[in-house]
Specification:
This protein is an alpha/beta fold. Among the domains are: about 25-250, D-Maltodextrin-Binding Protein, domain 2, CATH 3.40.190; about 260-310; about 560-715, Heat Shock Protein 90; about 740-865, 3-Layer(aba) Sandwich (Rossmann fold), CATH 3.40.50. The protein is built from 26 helices and 29 strands. The strands form 7 sheets. Strands 5, 6, 7, 8, 9, 10 and 11 form a 7-stranded mixed beta sheet that branches. A 6-stranded antiparallel beta sheet has the order 14-13-12-17-16-15. Helix 4 links the parallel strand 8 and strand 9. This is histidine kinase. Its EC number is 2.7.13.3. It is an enzyme of class 2 (transferase).
């Protein structure tokens, strides 16, 4: 018994102490710093004041807290919370760094944004004007950090000066010690009138403020504050909104009674003194008038407050989205628009075309339904007949009036206001809309707000469209440069390969000539010649892709070219595919190489057959005539070397499998193919052929809906179409004379020397233009012809030809190259070139090329000897 008494006594004492502590209330230390009107210490009575102080007082009364405010700077407050010297701090923005040592409430206490103030003598119109300026910020403050990050992003060099408080920042700016300073919007709007500073248009993105404690401590404080904030923000008549309104508008002048009221009251008093009999009558009248005046004054105060609130919201919305772009801008816009209008749903969408109809795609939304990326047709929506510059307004019953509009049905919308987003030409590019679950009481106010924000949204949408067009143009240029580089590579490879084939074909021709016709080896030599020609065909395709293929350009009727190869086309396609020709009569001729045009047609038709595969289908070959202007070329055939004028159109369409966008983006890449046994040069060669003919192409294709290739050839206004008959060749006379052979490839000089010897000609060999010029000057009287390659080191064939022709204009020069004739000697046409021989060539082709100039040279020599 006695042993247990002290323990019971101790328990009683502890319980009493606990009751005493409970009665006294829980002590809560709060950091206070200068952040007018949110929280600050009054300089006169040293009491903590501001709307955060009012909120804390309300919660403390409910929870039984004893509040103690610990004054200091913002940085000191953060440090004290971290060390546990104070329990709570207000006005804390959530950042990754602070979350390492602070615990934040779940409910935001207030939303602010960063403002930049300037000295009246300093012009700051944009963020770029901060370059070279002294800018005051508070250490550890998110507002200053935001401006610093923005300056870093724009590579703006300025000096950031640390200040202990926002008050000192405005003092420094006003005194000229600072050029500019950064404060939160709450402090700036409340205190800017007390200093000679200018609020600049530079407004940085908004952020939320929270109550915060040290990490792992005082979770009950945050829970109590979260309950208060959640309930208070939802109730417009709560003490939360009362505290914010009282302090935010504390410096706003209020309406007063009209000046004539005191006079009226004095007059009424005088009448009461002089006419006691009328006291009651006048009293009743004065009381009635006073009630009307007070009611009127209250109405004016309410209207003025609402107007200021609306102006503040509009400014906040405009400021909040001013520094953002793209998707961030649109999301900020609809979020702030919802706050400004009180709408349940706000969204912004852009237009696009699908199957000839206008559709809308949601870019950003606030509220339920219509997630970004949702697409729906414009038809059947309230904005279907939206006129340029107009609005579509439905105060009530909008969902029932438009049952086909999925977004409205998903929202359960009752009221709706939509505004068009237009480009510089007034064309509809999108819609900005607000919707409510209840009827709209004041449609005019919503319309006015929507007009303000739709103009800014239109400008951003136009900026986005221009940026998309710029990126698309860059992609087209990069693609064109890539194709050009590949074309140069393909042309170089084909040129070098043609040199090898020239040597092979030369020795092969010599072997065929020297062997007896009845020799068993002739069969194998003939097979080798066919193989070499097949290799030559491949190099021609590579040259065609590079735009340097050999063209024999004449005036041709496209219809006739197609008719001549109809049988070839029919046997080249699938048995289940049907070939149909729809050739327009009376087409003008085109200047083209018939063989190259046939290659284009054959490749397109066989590709169409491959697309149809084993199924039944139709391949349609169509021709037409059309005059194309600059606008059409820029919009439809951009990036292709074409000039306005008349064009003959060749169109090859099929009912096959079609192509995806990914396949269409690569079909012209060399060696890209979807065929199991394809080499991927067919369409690449077509593109080179079209470039060489200054023609263009457009492709239409969708998966499962077939493909159409539309080719545009420049038409010849007047001209004679090439005939099919040729004059009979005269009997060939034997050749004689001396040929100067110029080529840097020894394998070619060996082969061609043997070929010239087989033709009965003498040969002198030079390995570059400089050697050729020296040998020519030594033996010019004995030379009858020069056969010279164009591409050589030290001095190429072009330079050597000019020198030889200047000294001996009568000496015939035949040029040779692995590239086409137009590419190689176009600059020499009409300037004395006796002929052109494209590699690889046979003995017969060599003889045909050099025979005419040698015969003319022999005739000249006979004429000179006769004299």
């Amino acid at each position: 018994m006695t042993g247990g008494f002290p323990s019971r006594l101790r328990a009683l004492l502890l319980a009493a102490a606990a009751l005493a502590a409970s009665a006294a209330g829980r002590p809560v230390k709060v950091a206070v710093f200068t952040h007018v009107p949110a929280i600050y210490q009054d300089p006169v009575d040293r009491a903590a004041k501001g709307f955060f102080v009012d909120m804390l007082a309300e919660v403390a009364a409910r929870e039984g807290w004893e509040l103690e405010y610990v004054p200091g700077t913002w940085a000191q407050g953060l440090d004290r919370v971290r060390k546990g010297e104070v329990d709570l701090i207000t006005s804390a923005a959530r950042t990754p760094e602070r979350e390492r040592y602070l615990a934040f409430g779940q409910e935001a206490s207030f939303t602010v944004w960063s403002l930049v103030y300037a000295n009246p003598g300093v012009h700051i119109g944009t963020i770029l004007d901060l370059a070279g300026k002294r800018v005051g910020i508070t250490p550890g403050d998110v507002n200053g950090a935001h401006v610093r990050e923005l300056c870093d992003g724009f590579k703006i060099s300025c000096t950031f000066v640390p200040e202990d408080s926002f008050e000192e920042i405005l003092q420094g700016v006003a005194a000229g010690r600072l050029d500019a300073g950064v404060t939160p919007s709450t402090f700036g709007y409340a205190r800017e009138g007390g200093y000679k500073v200018i609020r600049t248009p530079v407004v940085v993105s908004p952020f939320d403020l929270y109550f915060a404690t040290a990490l792992g401590r005082n979770a009950d404080l945050l829970a109590a504050l979260d309950r208060y904030l959640k309930a208070g923000k939802a109730d417009r008549g709560s003490t939360y909104h009362a505290a914010v309104d009282r302090w935010m508008f504390a410096h706003t002048s209020r309406a007063v009674l009209p000046s004539w009221v005191p006079t009226a009251l004095l007059a009424a008093g005088g009448l009461l003194v002089t006419a006691l009999a009328a006291v009651q009558v006048f009293r009743r009248r004065v009381q009635a008038a006073t009630r009307r005046i007070v009611a009127l004054n209250r109405g004016l105060e309410h209207e003025l407050a609402e107007r200021r609130r609306t102006e503040s919201i509009i400014f906040n919305v405009a400021s909040g989205v001013s520094s953002s772009t793209g998707e961030t801008f649109f999301q900020n816009l609809v979020t702030y628009l919802a706050r400004a209008t009180g709408a349940d749903f706000t969204y912004v969408s852009e237009t696009f075309t699908r199957d000839g109809a206008t559709w809308l795609r949601i870019l950003a939304r606030h509220g339920e339904g219509g997630a970004p990326g949702t697409e729906y047709p414009l038809a059947g929506t309230p904005c279907e007949r939206l006129a340029p510059g107009g609005l579509c307004t439905y105060p009530a019953g909008v969902a029932s009036r438009f049952p086909g509009s999925a977004p409205l049905q998903d929202m359960g919308a009752e009221g709706f206001v939509g505004a068009p987003l237009e480009d510089a030409e007034g064309r509809l590019k999108g819609v900005l809309a607000v919707a409510t679950r209840r009827p709209i009481q004041d449609p005019a106010e919503l319309e006015s707000l929507l007009k303000i924000f739709s103009s800014r949204a239109s400008a951003e949408l136009q900026r986005r469209l221009v940026e998309d067009e710029r990126l698309a143009m860059e992609r087209r240029i990069q693609h064109s440069q890539k194709l050009e580089s590949l074309g140069v590579l393909a042309g170089g490879i084909a040129h070098d390969f043609n040199n090898l084939l020239t040597a092979v074909l030369g020795h092969l021709s010599l072997a065929q000539v020297k062997l007896d016709a009845a020799s068993p080896a002739q069969v194998h030599l003939d097979a080798m010649e066919r193989i070499v020609h097949r290799a030559s065909d491949l190099t021609r395709q590579m040259l065609a892709y590079s735009g340097k293929g050999r063209f024999v350009v004449k005036s041709h009727d496209v219809n006739q070219v197609i008719r001549e190869m109809t049988h070839l086309l029919e046997v080249s396609i699938s048995k289940k595919a049907s070939l149909r020709l729809d050739l327009a009569p009376g087409l003008p001729p085109i200047e083209a190489d018939a063989a190259q045009i046939q290659q284009v047609v054959l490749n397109l038709v066989t590709n169409a057959s491959d697309a149809i595969g084993d199924a039944e289908g139709i391949i349609r070959v169509t021709t037409a005539f059309q005059t194309l202007d600059t606008a059409y070329l820029d919009q439809v055939l951009q990036g292709q070397a074409m000039t306005p004028g008349p064009f003959v159109i060749l169109e090859v369409g099929d009912t096959g499998c079609g192509m995806t966008a990914e396949v269409m983006a690569r079909i012209f890449d060399p060696f890209f193919t979807t065929k199991p046994n394809g080499h991927g040069l067919g369409l690449s060669a077509i593109q080179g052929i079209l470039r060489g003919h200054r023609a263009g192409m457009r492709i239409y294709s969708e998966p499962g809906r077939g493909t159409t290739f539309k080719v545009f050839f420049p038409a010849t206004p007047q001209g004679v179409v090439a005939g099919s008959s040729e004059a009979a060749a005269p009997a060939e006379a034997p050749l004689s004379g001396t040929v100067l052979l110029v080529d840097d490839e020894e394998i070619i000089t060996l082969a061609v020397t043997g070929m010239l010897d087989a033709l009965g000609l003498q040969t002198r060999v030079a390995h570059n233009g400089r050697e050729a010029l020296e040998l020519f000057r030594r033996e010019r009287d004995h030379l009858d012809l020069v056969l010279m390659d164009l591409t050589m080191p030290q001095m190429d064939g072009r330079e050597a030809f000019r020198a030889i022709h200047a000294e001996a204009p009568d000496l015939p020069v035949v040029l040779s190259s692995g590239y086409n004739e137009q590419e190689s000697i176009q600059e020499f046409i009409g300037r004395g070139v006796a002929g052109f021989l494209q590699k690889p060539y046979t003995l017969q082709a060599l003889a045909q090329a050099i025979r005419p100039p040698l015969m003319r040279r022999a005739a000249q020599r006979r004429t000179q000897e006769a004299r």
